[in-house]
Write a structure and sequence with these properties.
single chain, mainly alpha, 0% strand
Length: 69
């Protein structure tokens, strides 16, 4: 059985995410966050260690999505 933990995001971001996923295959904010984090982890595992430029690119993408300030 898979165990879960809670990740908190600001409510205004949650509303934006809900609007964004409307009409997609994502059924919840949690689905989208799992997908994004899994994608980052897989990318990291395939490439080994992330370069500073790759890390910054991922961070910028997360900022653009509103996950980072």
């Amino acid at each position: 059985m898979t165990e879960y933990t809670t990740v908190s995001i600001p409510k205004d971001l949650a509303v934006r995410v809900e609007d964004t996923i409307e009409g997609t295959s994502f059924s919840s904010t949690s689905d989208l966050v799992r997908f994004l984090l899994r994608s980052i982890v897989i990318q990291h595992q395939r490439q080994g260690e992330l370069s500073e430029a790759e890390f910054e690119e991922i961070a910028q993408q997360l900022r653009d999505l509103g996950y980072l300030k």
